Amino acid sequence: MNLEVLKTENLVVSYGDKRVLDCLNISIYKGEFVGIIGPNGTGKSTLVKAITNIIDSHSGDIFIEGRENRNISKKERAKLVAVVPQEFSIDYEFTNLDIVMMGRNPHIDKKNKIGQKDFDIVKEAMTLTNTWDFKDRFFNELSGGERQRVIVARAIAQQTHIILLDEPTSHLDIHHQLEVMELIHLLKKKRNITVVAVLHDINMAARFSDRLILINHGKVVADGTPEEVIKEEHLSKLYSMEMIVRENKILGKREIIPLRAIKELTEKKGINIHVVCGGGTGEKILERLKSLGFNVTAGIINEGDSDWEICKILKIPCVVAPPFSGYSNEDADKNRILINQSDYVLVTSVPFGIGNLLNLEVLRNIEKPIYFYQNSKIDIDYAQGKAIKLLDELQKKENFNYIQNYDELLQKL
Amino acid sequence: MIKFVKKYLIFLVIIICLATIFICTTIGVANISVSQTVNILFNKITSIGNVEGVKESTIAIIWNLRFPRVMLAFLVGGALSICGVAYQGIFKNPMADPFLLGVSSGAALGATIAIVFNISAIFFGLDMITVFAFVSALLTLLLVYNISRIGNKVPVPTLLLSGIAISQFLTAIISLFMIFSDQMNRVVFWTMGSLNAKSWNHLILILPYVIIGFIILFRYHRQMDIMLLGEDTASQLGVNTEKLKLVILVVTAFITAATVSVTGIIGFVGLIIPHIVRMIVGPKHKKLYPYSFVLGGILLIICDTVARSLINQEIPVGIITAIFGGPFFIYLLKKRKRGGI
């Protein structure tokens, strides 16, 4: 079993009457990268303050490397835990070397002198974080990302086993956010440092953390691998928004796509609509219809198509054909059943080739209102004119309508 | 030029300091030349050289009147400046000066009581005004500190506010005393601050406080630097912030109480010198303390020389420092709007 380096036991911290941490129990093991996530005001930053003893806990215990926190002096604690805070600006003209050298403070002995050893450690920390080049420049001349790297260097110079990050990237642009997180991740790997990071960006947390702890109202809601924690049932209620949780195939990580925090009126409850889509043309409208309260069905879609994935995530019933193959008659029948159950049919701007021509053909005998999304930028016919011919025929039907955009459609329904 | 000044700053400052001491000891009503002054001082300090032929009265004027006064000015100016440095650091407040927490009004109340009730006993060679001022200043700081304490912590904002409140309260009491007393003039003159009629005794009285105080303050120079990053960060970097605050408050309390009780309230030195020095040597306390001490000393020597020789009547030096200090401070503020001040 791994060594437990940080632990809270029934930790309670309150501001006045308000309990910010309410019987919080977490354990952090050596060498882990633990992300702490949760909505604003749930006590994430308070946890960092409690661990570094800036605020007193009401009850419960904190153990750092097995020692009870309140028995550790500030100097000793600064040898065990380093903190990279949220934002860091100072009004004084300290050079970056000065700032990083401050990380040596807990190690300075009674002689009160900075030695060659301290200097070497600082140099190494600054080289590692790529900040040695501007050691003589003033800290407040640097950009946000550079500053944060200097602060990370200071944390390294403290030579602790644990680094706490308190929303270290919240004021940075996306490039610098990534840069700082990658740097910390690298350090963790190189030096086997235990990292506990309070993060507000769930995707960033899922990407870099070995383990995630989801906190709400000062309590642990979920604790586990990113796959175990990043789930809609955990997150959507907590953050009170609609979201999609999916695999990011490029990074091989869980990610969320926040959809909306303010709910649209779900006035369309009970209306059935069938969507003919494919090749990602349905992504945009499928979710929107679903959230408006429509009973959405779709088909026919090939397995592996990105529309198929959306349907899977949104739990939309659809007719699925095997990957990279044409549709069988059986599929067509199933599709016809779904269409007959629905009140409306929507055709997205999907191109038609030999493979999916059946999706168009099926509409010939349908008497339900059909809405066809017209997108002049896309060539829809890849079936040697057959699709155009079918479309010409369909146009003549009374129940066939062209639409130019989805808002128009939603108004009509 | 700037590079050159920075490189040899320490020598430059020492030369200016010595020159100021010699020149200001020479300036005065009795006409004495610089060479005579140097000669007398050199002889008195090292017992080498020849002062035969120099009038006994001249030697007395230099050695017993002007030189101790100049040295006292140096000591007091330096002491107030390092206390200003410490306060500005610990409070992270550019407007902090050594009198921020009411040490001046505390001392003034003590002095007022001694003056109004005409307590004139001599205590170890010191008049009662000095003794009362010293004790009252210390008691005031003790009061302010205890009012601000919440559990085992002393939050800086609370400290500032209770300092201001107590200050105002004590000033009101002083005013009350003055209204019902015929000694108003003496009280007013005392509060304006003056180095008039001070002797070696006074110098020796405050010397230990200043020397020991300086040594202790200097020991904590690194923690003071870190304190400038904010109390929370300092704490996370291993600084025992509560202990540091207590040490700084106690040490500065003794230094300022000692100097104020001897000279009265001399304002502005402790406020502007730290700012000027910070512009020259940067924010690190390792340099701030010694340079502030020397420059503060030089400034007060010059101000005191102006105070006693500008017109026939002596002007309280506190007025001179404020008259020069105020506009100069505004000039600095205008010149450098970005951080540091």
Automatic annotation (TrEMBL), chain A:
Gene Ontology MF terms in the entry: ATP binding; ATP hydrolysis activity
Biological source species: Alkalibaculum sporogenes
Matches recorded under SUPFAM superfamilies: P-loop containing nucleoside triphosphate hydrolases
Keywords: ATP-binding, Nucleotide-binding, Translocase, Transport
Pfam family name, one: ABC_tran
InterPro entries tied to this protein: AAA+_ATPase, ABC_transporter-like_ATP-bd, ABC_transporter-like_CS, P-loop_NTPase
Domain of life where this protein originates: Bacteria
Protein name (database record): ATP-binding cassette domain-containing protein
Keyword Cytoplasm among UniProt keywords: no
Domain ABC transporter, first and last residues per copy: 6-242
Claim: Nucleotide-binding is one of the keywords in the record: yes
Automatic annotation (TrEMBL), chain B:
Subcellular location as annotated: Cell membrane
Main location: membrane
GO biological process terms held by the UniProt record: siderophore-iron import into cell
UniProt keyword annotations, A-Z: Cell membrane, Membrane, Transmembrane, Transmembrane helix, Transport
Transmembrane segments: 9-34, 70-87, 99-123, 129-147, 159-180, 200-218, 246-276, 288-307, 314-333
A cellular-component GO term for this protein: plasma membrane
Molecular-function GO terms, alphabetical: transmembrane transporter activity
Metal-binding is among the record's keywords: no
Keyword Cell membrane recorded: yes
Superkingdom as given in the UniProt entry: Bacteria
A Pfam short name: FecCD
Mode of membrane association: Multi-pass membrane protein
PANTHER family per UniProt: ABC TRANSPORTER PERMEASE PROTEIN MJ0876-RELATED, FERRIC ENTEROBACTIN TRANSPORT SYSTEM PERMEASE PROTEIN
Family in the record: Belongs to the binding-protein-dependent transport system permease family. FecCD subfamily.
Protein name: Iron chelate uptake ABC transporter family permease subunit
Originating organism: Alkalibaculum sporogenes
